[in-house]
Amino acid sequence: MSVNISQRINELKEIILEHDYQYYILAEPKISDQEYDLLIKELEKLESDYPDLITKDSPTQRVGKDLTSDFKPVIHKVPMLSLANTYNEEELFDFDRRVHDGLKKDDIIEYVVEPKIDGASVSINYVNGLLKTAATRGDGVVGEEITINVKTIKSIPLRLINYKAYKYKLNDFEVRGEIFINIEDFKKLNEEREKEGAKLFANPRNSSAGTLKLHDPKIVAKRPLNIFLYFLISTEEEFNSQIENLGLLKKLGFNVNPEHRLCKNIYEVIEACHILEKKRETLKYEIDGAVIKVNSIHQQKQLGSIAKSPRWAVAFKFKAKQATSKLKRVTWQVGRTGTLTPVAELNPVILSGSTISRATLHNYDEIKRKDIHYEDTVILEKGGDVIPKIVAIVLDKRVINSIPVEPPEFCPVCKSKLYKLDDEVAFYCENVECPAQIKGRLQHFVSRGAMDIEGLGESLINLLVEKNFLHTFSDIYELKDRRSELIAIERLGERSIDNLLNSIEESKKQPFHKLLYAIGIRYVGSGAAKKLAEYFLSIDKIIEATENEISSINEIGPRISQSVKSFFNQKENLEIISKLKDYGLNFQSGIKIIKTNFFINKTFVLTGTLKNFSREEAGDRIIQLGGKILSSISKKANYLIAGENAGSKLDRAISLGVDILDENKFTNLLKEASNNND
Description:
The chain is of the alpha+beta class.
């Protein structure tokens, strides 16, 4: 093999890399599309002739040939936290005050303001200058690997530009950003789909997120995905500031949003937010707000995080865009718990890049409060720029003798008589055999945050319920015995059914807290399910627990405890649990062997502000070491952990003779217990 061939391949890769940077990052192309295509074709020809010289960072390797059968879970080295939202200047001043309270009085605090891109979050790992893996945000702790799809996005470098030239160690680091589709590209994409007779995408954000989960990278490569990177982290390096990191990202070849701004104080932050909001309509991509971050990385670490959000960053949400439409009719949807939700059916209207023809009306009290009539002209906006809702009616356009919207007397699905509790706003269908409730419960059970059964979507659930194949959760695990019947259904091929059955089998590995959430106990969301699972460790102990014991858990109140007891007092629910156990589903947490330590089998209450932990973090550490957390002080508590500004709980603990631990003592006990368990 000629050395010249190898040199020419490397030369072509360098030239193409540079032109990708000029085109996709700087938006300053130096050559025509035709000249660029000739370079790619030359490289493809040489690599075809000399396949041993193909490398992973070659531009020809962006689009993989193999289909992705599944998206493997990826545990983020550093959690991808969500941001708390602010909506006005007063809330920004409150954020600034909290930042100052969390740092030294003489600290100089700067902020960086960046556009909040309305896209899909992604985390990408680079090792030795090459793209290694990419993952979705997921639940913030565990995402899904989408490397093969992310590599198709040309604004994401497969290889970094001269990464060894900088003072930082960049052998292994992570970047985070938002994948999005430009507004005009989205319109063209929908125009093409309309010509093909395909279903139109609702908005750029949903189409971006959906594209990243496609199994065929060739289809992904045809979608006009783009990215802005905004975060740089490394376990082997200490960075100085966010503004410096943004500059470094750009030098490394990443696409960084040019609209970011360094601010010396909160007044400059507010000014920057207003400037960005005014520019919103002129930008080529959708933004729904601004992100404000403390500039100093050292100060970020000092401030730390609370349960799901960093203390050093916040989102400023822009005012929602509005549009008007006419209310044609109201339909009533029946949820998995029997709750009826009114939905407005509207004349289609464009709002924030989406075609809106339906909007939630929440409940009948909301309809009465807004005095909504049929044929009213209504003002629409997107709640949080996502869910369309009616905010008001245009009274001067009301039709004479218009009819006010009234609730139905009977369930629109099963025709059962509806009821309404005096202390609640919702109307209910109390027939648990109502097909809408059955479908809703099954859809919740298989959803991504619950049992995550891929392939068993809404339309297939509806079909299988109508065919009487599915009635309860346990029926899902009996579908394997109906394989031949499923394959015989029109449009369901052998391969898709086998993939579905494999996904059902794989769901048995879901952790206990996700299964507890999946079975759909009223008021038990994913967070409450996790707390219940961590406290009781098994379904049997939850079933045996009293209401008082359940409600004593931190952040689990009487409404949840009553609902849990009510659920497990029903014979049919216990029968379903028993069947699911027989099918091998996981009804207990992985019990870690904990060596004897100070915390094991003791109960703790947390109060006040801790400097080094959020209350949730402190509680998690205690639970990991075999202790339990209570929400209120009583004689059952062994210890009260008191931070700064401890209030009435401290007084009550003293009066009851409960032992008090300050943060220093608590931290030392944690260290000692952790060392014992290593």
